[in-house]
Specification:
The complex is a heterodimer of chains A (671) and B (100). With 671 residues, chain A is α/β, with parallel strands linked by helices. Chain A has 26 helices and ten strands. Among the domains of chain A are: 197 residues, Rossmann fold (3-Layer(aba) Sandwich); 52 residues. In chain A, the strands form two sheets. In chain A, strands 2-3-4-1-5-6-8 form a seven-stranded mixed beta sheet, with helices on both faces. In chain B, a hairpin with a 6-residue loop joins strand 3 and strand 4. Chain B has a single domain, classed as Roll (SH3 type barrels), CATH 2.30.30.90. Chain B is built from three helices and six strands. By secondary structure, chain B is of the alpha+beta class. The chains are: A alpha/beta (671), B alpha+beta (100).
C-alpha cells in the first residue's frame, strides 16, 4: 500500500446474505478491490472509507456462520479475524482487525446473534450493524437490543445506504478510543433476548418470498421453470451476443485491412495483421458473451434465485461430489468456458469450486461447434448428423461427471460437499453491485487477453510464418507474372479472363500453403505426427491441432490453408451453416478433406478419422483464454497446468481408442 | 413452549446439551414430511457438522417447519428463526425433533 503506516482496520463480519457487500459499498462509496489472503486463493474485498479524522480500512470477509471453520478457506478468514492488531506486520493482509462490525440481518435475529456472541469472545471492539430492518416482518427495539448486548447497534439500510454515515462515525470513534467498549456480553438466553426486543407485526400477509417460492420451487413446475430460464439465458448468449461479435469481427478485419494498406507486404504486415490483430481479435470476440453471462449470473445471484436453482438440482450434482451451486457455471460453459470459470465465484466451498473449474472446459463450448459442423458435414450423412453432434456434447458431460467424481475422491477430497444453504429473501438486485461484478469480470478477462493470450498468438504466428525461403517466393512470382501477362492479352468480359483471374488467386493460396508447409509449425507437426498416428491424424491434421492450442477454432483456417482452399473465416460457421445458404462455403474445405490423399495414396480422412478428430476436440484443452481465466481464478499455475495436461492426455487416449477400436471393427476403410 | 426452557445451552459444549436431553428422544428431521411443525430436541454428535447445525439455529426447543422437499427428493427446505434453510437429508438426520 502507498500509505506509509497501516490504517485502522475494521472487519465486516456476517453470515451470507446479511448485506455486507452492499453495506461496504455504501460505507466507502467506491469499488472494492478483491484482495487475497496471503498464500491462499481465499478472497476478501476491501476499501478505504473517509471519516472525519482520517481514513478507515474496511475489509469484507467471506460469509461466516460460526467461528468454527468447516473448510480450509473459512479457516483462512477466521485466522485473520483472530489476528491481533498489535502483532501487525506491514505485509499485506498479515494483520488483524482493530474492530469488528458485525452485520446482522434483523429478520433472523435468533440465529444471527449467536455469531455476535461468538465474536464478542475475540475481545475486540464490536459494533452491530442491523440490516433489513424494514423487511424483517417484526419491529425491533434497537435501544433495548443494544442495552442487552452491551454494544452499539446501528440500523442501516444496505440498499439505500441510510444509516451508513452514523455507522462510520461510531466505528471511527470505536477504534480511536478502543477501551470504550470492551464487549460485556453477559450470558443471556438468545431466545429470551430476541423475544424481549421484537414485536411481531400482526396481520402481515404471507411474505412475498414464500409466494414466489410456491411457484419457483413447485414440486412439478419448479424444474421446468428452471429449464426454461436456462434455455432463455443460453439462447440470449448465442443470439444476443451475435451482433456485438459481428461488430468486433468486422472491426478486426477493418483494422487488419487498414494496417495492410499502410504497411508494405512482408513480415511486419503479417505480424501485425495475422499475429496481433487476429490473435487479440479472436479473444476479444468472446467479450460480449462474457458481459452477458456475467450480467445474468450476477442478476440471478443478487435476486436470490441462484440459491433456488442450487436447491432444485443439488440431488443430481451431489452424485459426483458437487452441489447445486455448480449448476449455473456448468450450463454457461456450453456457451463459453471463460465466463463460466468466472461464474464459479458463487460457489463458497473452495474444493467444490476447484472441482467445478477443472471440469468446466469439458463442456462443448460454442468454439467447438465450427469444428463439429465442418467435419460432420464432410463425413457423415445428414441422417446421422444430429446423433453424432448430440453424442459429442454428451461425451463432454459424461467425462466431466467422471472427472469431478474422481477429483472429489482424490485430490479434492476432504470437506465432503455439504449443503447448508440459506434461501435468501428475494430482492431487487442493486444496480451498482451488478455493474461492479460485470465490470470486474470483463476487466480481468481483458487483462488476460492482453497478456498471456497475445503472447501465445504471437508465438504461433512466428512458428507458422518462418522460415521464408526465397525459392518459394520466386517460383510463385514467376507464375504470377506469366498469368498477369496472359490476363493483359484478354479483353474484359471474356470467360477465359475470369478463369485466369481464378488461377491468379489460386497462386496466392498455393504460395501461402507452400510457406506454411515448410514452416517451423509444419516441421513440428511432421515431427509430432507419429504421436497422433494411432488416432488416425495425418501431418496436416496434426499441424491443425497444434495451431489450435491457443484457440480451438483456429483449426479451421489452418486446415483451410494446409489443404489449399484459401482463407476460411471461422466466423462463417455457425448453426445456420448446417443447412441452407451457407452450406456451399463449407463444401470447399469439406470436399478437399474428402479428396485429400496421404503420401501413399490412401485417403487422408475417413469418417472414422473425422470422428477421432472430433472426439479429440471435444475433450482437448485448446483455449488459452480459458487457461488464463483458470489461472486468474485459482491464483496459481497449478490448476491451468493440471487442466491442460489431463484434458489433452484424455483427448489423445480417447481419440486413439476411437480410431483403433473403429479400425478393428472394420470402420476404417473409405468414408 | 419455546421460551419456557431458559437453558443456557448455547454457551456450553454440545456434549452437555446431549446430556441435558438424554431422556428426550426424537425423530430424525429428515423423516418428517412437508408442512410438519416441529421442535428441536437435540443435535446428534459433537463434531464440526453438529456444531455448525447448532450455529445455524438448531438449538433445543427451536421451532422448525419443514417447508418443502426438493422435486428430486433431496435437499429439504426448513424454516427456523424466521429464515429459510436448505439441508441435505444426510445432515438433516442429525437433528432430532418432536412434534409441536
Amino acid at each position: 500500500m502507498s500509505v506509509s503506516r497501516r490504517l485502522a482496520t475494521i472487519a465486516l463480519v456476517g453470515r451470507q446474505n446479511a448485506g455486507k457487500t452492499s453495506l461496504l459499498m455504501h460505507l466507502t462509496g467506491r469499488t472494492q478491490h478483491p484482495v487475497n489472503f496471503p498464500g491462499s486463493s481465499v478472497e476478501r474485498s476491501e476499501a478505504v472509507a473517509k471519516v472525519a479524522d482520517g481514513h478507515l480500512r474496511i475489509v469484507d470477509l467471506p460469509g461466516i456462520t460460526s467461528l468454527e471453520a468447516l473448510s480450509p478457506d473459512e479457516e483462512v478468514a477466521l485466522g485473520w479475524l483472530r489476528g491481533g492488531a498489535a502483532t501487525t506486520s506491514e505485509k499485506e493482509g498479515g494483520d488483524g482487525p482493530d474492530a469488528i462490525c458485525a452485520v446482522v440481518d434483523a429478520a433472523k435475529l435468533g440465529v444471527e446473534l449467536g455469531l455476535v456472541v461468538q465474536l464478542a469472545r475475540l475481545g475486540k471492539p464490536i459494533i452491530v450493524a442491523l440490516t433489513k430492518v424494514d423487511v424483517a416482518g417484526v419491529t425491533i427495539d434497537v435501544a433495548a437490543l443494544a442495552r442487552e448486548l452491551g454494544v452499539s447497534v446501528v440500523p442501516v439500510n444496505a440498499l439505500t445506504g441510510a444509516g451508513a454515515q452514523v455507522l462510520l462515525t461510531r466505528l471511527s470513534a470505536e477504534v480511536s478510543t478502543p477501551t470504550a467498549s470492551a464487549p460485556r456480553l453477559a450470558p443471556v438466553d438468545l431466545d429470551v433476548l430476541v423475544k424481549a426486543v421484537t414485536t411481531p407485526i400482526v396481520g402481515e400477509r404471507p411474505a412475498l418470498t414464500d409466494r414466489i417460492d410456491a411457484v419457483l420451487l413447485h414440486r412439478v413446475f419448479g424444474l421446468p421453470i428452471l429449464a426454461l430460464l436456462v434455455f432463455g439465458i443460453f439462447q440470449t448468449l448465442f443470439v444476443g451476443a451475435e451482433p456485438m461479435m459481428g461488430l468486433i469481427e468486422d472491426g478486426q478485419s477493418a483494422l487488419g485491412g487498414w494496417i495492410a494498406s499502410l504497411v508494405p507486404e512482408g513480415a511486419l504486415q503479417s505480424f501485425l495483421v495475422d499475429g496481433l490483430v487476429n490473435g487479440v481479435g479472436s479473444v476479444l470476440v468472446f467479450l460480449p458473451q462474457i458481459i452477458l453471462l456475467m450480467l445474468f449470473v450476477s442478476l440471478l445471484e443478487a435476486s436470490g434465485y441462484m440459491a433456488r436453482a442450487a436447491f432444485l438440482l443439488d440431488r443430481v450434482l451431489s452424485k459426483v461430489g458437487l452441489s447445486g451451486r455448480s449448476f449455473v457455471p456448468m450450463v454457461s460453459s456450453f456457451a463459453c468456458a471463460v465466463p463460466a470459470v468466472l461464474a464459479t465465484r458463487m460457489i463458497d466451498n473452495e474444493r467444490e469450486r476447484l472441482a467445478t473449474i477443472a471440469v468446466l472446459p469439458l463442456m462443448s463450448c460454442s468454439a467447438r461447434l465450427p469444428v463439429y459442423v465442418v467435419l460432420i458435414g464432410a463425413f457423415f450423412p445428414s441422417s446421422q448428423a444430429g446423433i453424432v453432434l448430440f453424442s459429442l456434447y454428451g461425451l463432454g458431460i459424461v467425462v466431466a461427471a467422471l472427472v469431478a467424481w474422481i477429483l472429489r475422491r482424490t485430490k479434492l477430497r476432504g470437506s465432503h460437499a455439504i449443503l447448508m444453504m440459506e434461501l435468501p429473501v428475494y430482492q431487487r438486485p442493486l444496480f451498482r453491485v451488478v455493474k461492479n461484478q460485470v465490470w470486474a469480470a470483463s476487466r480481468e478477462f481483458l487483462v488476460t487477453a492482453g497478456t498471456v493470450i497475445m503472447a501465445t498468438a504471437v508465438l504461433i504466428w512466428v512458428l507458422s510464418y518462418y522460415p521464408r525461403p526465397a525459392a518459394i517466393h520466386e517460383r510463385h512470382a514467376a507464375e504470377r507474372t506469366t498469368l498477369v501477362a496472359e490476363l493483359a492479352t484478354l479483353a474484359a468480359g471474356l470467360p477465359a479472363r475470369a478463369e485466369v483471374e481464378a488461377l491468379l488467386a489460386d497462386v496466392d493460396t498455393r504460395e501461402r500453403a507452400a510457406y506454411l508447409e515448410q514452416s517451423f509449425l509444419a516441421e513440428a507437426g511432421k515431427a509430432i505426427q507419429p504421436v497422433f498416428a494411432p488416432a488416425g491424424f495425418d501431418w496436416r491434421t496434426t499441424v491443425g491441432v497444434l495451431a489450435a492450442f491457443p484457440a480451438r477454432e483456429l483449426v479451421i483456417p489452418t486446415l483451410g490453408i494446409l489443404y489449399s482452399v484459401g482463407d476460411v473465416d471461422p466466423g462463417e460457421f455457425d448453426i445456420a451453416s448446417l443447412d441452407g445458404a451457407e452450406a456451399h462455403r463449407n463444401e470447399g474445405l469439406a470436399g478437399r478433406l474428402r479428396a485429400a490423399k496421404q503420401e501413399d495414396g490412401s485417403p487422408a480422412w475417413t469418417s472414422l478419422s473425422a470422428l477421432s478428430v472430433m472426439v479429440f476436440f471435444a475433450l482437448c484443452s485448446q483455449c488459452m483464454a480459458t487457461l488464463g481465466a483458470i489461472k486468474r481464478e485459482t491464483r496459481s499455475w497449478r490448476w491451468p497446468l493440471f487442466v491442460f495436461t489431463y484434458m489433452t492426455s484424455l483427448a489423445w487416449v480417447m481419440a486413439v481408442l476411437v480410431y483403433q477400436i473403429g479400425s478393428a471393427l472394420g470402420f476404417g476403410g473409405g468414408s | 413452549m419455546l421460551l419456557e426452557n431458559k437453558s443456557q445451552f448455547w454457551l456450553k459444549d454440545t456434549d452437555m446439551v446431549e446430556n441435558a436431553y438424554d431422556a428426550a428422544t426424537g425423530t430424525p428431521l429428515d423423516r418428517e414430511r412437508a408442512g410438519a411443525s416441529l421442535r428441536v430436541v437435540s443435535v446428534e454428535g459433537d463434531d464440526a457438522i453438529a456444531r455448525r447445525l447448532i450455529d445455524l439455529g438448531f438449538r433445543p426447543n427451536t421451532e422448525v417447519r419443514v417447508e418443502r422437499v426438493a422435486p428430486l427428493g433431496d435437499p429439504i427446505q426448513f424454516r427456523l428463526h424466521g429464515y429459510r434453510l436448505a439441508l441435505r437429508k444426510s445432515e438433516a438426520r442429525r437433528v432430532l425433533v418432536m412434534a409441536r
